[in-house]
Design a protein that fits this description.
Blueprint lengths: L6 E4 L1 E4 L2 E9 L3 H4 L8 H25 L7 H13 L2 H14 L3 H15 L3 H21 L14 E5 L4 H5 L6 E6 L7 H8 L4 E3 L3 H5 L6 E4 L4 E4 L3 H8 L20 E6 L2 H4 L7 E8 H4 L8 H15 L3 E5 L25 H6 L2 H14 L4 E6 L5 H18 L6 E7 L2 H5 L1 H7 L2 E5 H9 L11 H16 L4 E4 L6 H10 L3 E5 L7
Parallel strand pairs: 3-4, 4-5, 5-6, 9-10, 9-16, 10-11, 11-12, 12-13, 13-14, 14-15, 15-16
Antiparallel strand pairs: 1-8, 2-6, 3-7, 7-8
The chain binds phosphoenolpyruvate and magnesium ion.
The site of magnesium ion has 4 residues, from helix 19.
């Protein structure tokens, strides 16, 4: 066999992790290009369309069943919005009327409709809706041809799926056992597909030069969705190096961190499905509930909806610590479109600052958390703090709601994320103002180095300095401290952080086995 060279390509990270596997190309656009002509008569075409709609609804209802325990999660909501599209009388009657009037095949009509929507819609929020419509249309078109097998249903173990665009339905029915990573050309961080991949812990990268790699003889691939690179045909040495990451493979005893008795392992939670998996005795509680990812409805969830979820989780945890972080919206997390002019850049208002500009959202969430605090051991965490004044203002609001609800301040602890360089530099003052601290290694690293790539290989001295300052502030003020973020997925760094004095690690569920 001819020797193949290792090729390394830069990519953007949508869902972190490391995936190994055989590449598999998927052409999701092609479905719109096939079968342009109306081959049968109009009545038959309409009947075929109606049957495909019915089949598509049935498929989505089936998928929904498998998410039955996840009723308030992102995935459930996306599935509901796909069902809404399939039941939308305007879209359906428009398609049928056009088949009649224009005498074109349903493929052509759906393609035309989609192009028209694309030209009309400029609002980024509705653009996401457009992605849903496109996904649903693709499903319907696939179902027009019942004999055609779904390529993704028949893949072997550990495949890496490469496509111009990965859409939610490519991910809904998959898991990390069969698919070790997704690579796309243009999927965005905020897309539903990326959000679902993150909630399923499947590595996902985008912005790959797909044309450039199509003609390469690809045998194996590594997707490094920590450093943002794809390695085609890795050498033996590279493969060995990546195996040490122990992300997608179960760590051997040798690879596990030497757990010390005083280490507490908490988990980061982004979906209700994950809550049902917290049965491992090693898990001390939830160290970070990413509430902005938990609901993902078109509107911010109501106070009652939030209360019911927080209460349910609190009861499940049976008094184990439960850290609920206030909505960390803004920048790349513009999920509810509450930012003025739909600005989604890394430097837009975010976290605490954005919440203070949207008081009703903040008050509702605090009320829901305070009410739920009567049912568990709840810690309220303030996200993306940049200034002490943000903490003081939010604490004032908490106090006033506590008084209104006649709930004692002792039912809840209030903490601050330390994930901006400004907060790290002000940590002494912040520590005095709060009951606990939580280091966000993802954002702290991103904003310290002004780069989206998080170094897993070694702890940079700049970050180490920050960590030392934060650890000292927590110690001096005698406040507990958590450490969250993807950086701690690396064993060497974990051990180093432990030696620096960090004892409460909050990791994603898949990384609990590293301990
Ligand atoms: C972090 O920044 O490390 C963190 C835990 O917050 P998130 O990843 O949700 O931004
Ligand atoms: Mg963060």
């Amino acid at each position: 066999m001819s020797k193949v060279d290792e090729i390394v390509l830069p990519v953007s990270i949508l869902s972190s992790g490391v995936g190994f596997g055989k590449p598999l190309f998927l052409n999701s656009q092609k479905i719109f290009e096939e079968n342009f002509y109306l081959k049968k008569n109009i009545d038959q075409e309409i009947l075929k369309f109606e049957k495909a709609i019915k089949k598509s609804k049935k498929q989505i209802l089936e998928i929904k069943k498998s998410f039955a325990n996840d009723e308030l999660s992102i995935t459930f909501d996306i599935l509901n919005s796909h069902l809404e599209i399939l039941n939308d009388p305007v879209i359906l009657s428009e398609a049928i009327n056009r088949i009649k009037k224009e005498q074109k095949s349903i493929q052509t009509i759906l393609k035309d409709l989609l192009n028209e929507y694309k030209n009309k819609i400029t609002d980024p929020f509705f653009k996401e809706k457009l992605a849903d419509i496109s996904d649903v249309f693709k499903r319907v078109l696939k179902n027009l041809k019942p004999s055609k097998v779904d390529i993704l249903k028949n893949i072997g173990k550990k495949s890496i799926i490469i496509s111009d665009e990965i859409i939610p339905s490519d991910i809904f029915e998959r898991d990390s056992l069969t698919i070790s990573a997704f690579i796309s050309v243009r999927t965005s961080y905020n897309s539903h597909a990326a959000i679902i991949a993150r909630s399923k812990n499947i590595p996902f990268v985008s912005n790959i030069d797909i044309e450039g790699i199509k003609n390469i003889n690809m045998q194996d691939m590594i997707v490094d969705a920590f450093k943002g690179k794809v390695i085609i045909n890795p050498t033996k040495k590279t493969s060995e190096k990546y195996k040490n990451f122990s992300i997608s493979i179960k760590p051997s005893e040798k690879e596990k961190i030497k757990i010390q008795k005083d280490v507490n392992i908490f988990v980061n939670i982004s979906s209700l499905k994950e809550v049902n998996q917290i049965d491992d005795k090693k898990i001390s509680g939830i160290g970070l509930l990413r509430t902005e990812l938990l609901f993902f409805k078109k509107e911010i969830p109501t106070q009652i909806e939030q209360f019911n979820v927080y209460k349910k989780i609190a009861k499940n945890l049976k008094n184990r610590p439960f850290v609920i972080r206030l909505f960390d919206l803004g920048a790349d997390k513009n999920f509810y479109n509450i930012i003025e002019n739909n600005k989604t850049c890394f430097f837009s208002s975010r976290g605490a600052d954005l919440l203070l500009k949207n008081k009703k959202i903040l008050q509702d969430q605090i009320t829901a958390i305070l009410k739920a605090s009567l049912f568990g051991n709840i810690y309220l965490l303030i996200p993306f703090v940049k200034d002490l004044s943000e903490i003081i203002l939010i604490k004032k609001i908490i106090k006033s709601i506590q008084e209104d609800l006649k709930i004692s301040p002792s039912t809840i602890k209030i903490g601050s994320m330390i994930e901006t360089p400004a907060a790290a530099l002000m940590v002494d003052e912040i520590a005095k103002e709060v009951d606990f601290l939580s280091i966000g290694t993802n954002d702290l690293s991103r904003y310290t180095f002004a780069s989206n790539k998080i170094s897993l290989k070694e702890l940079h001295p700049a970050l180490e300095k920050f960590f030392k300052m934060i650890i000292k502030a927590a110690k001096d003020s005698n406040k507990p401290m958590f450490l969250c973020g993807e950086m701690i997925a690396d064993k060497k760094i974990l051990e180093k952080l432990y030696n620096l004095g960090i004892k409460n690690f909050s990791v994603s569920l898949k990384n609990v086995e590293l301990f």
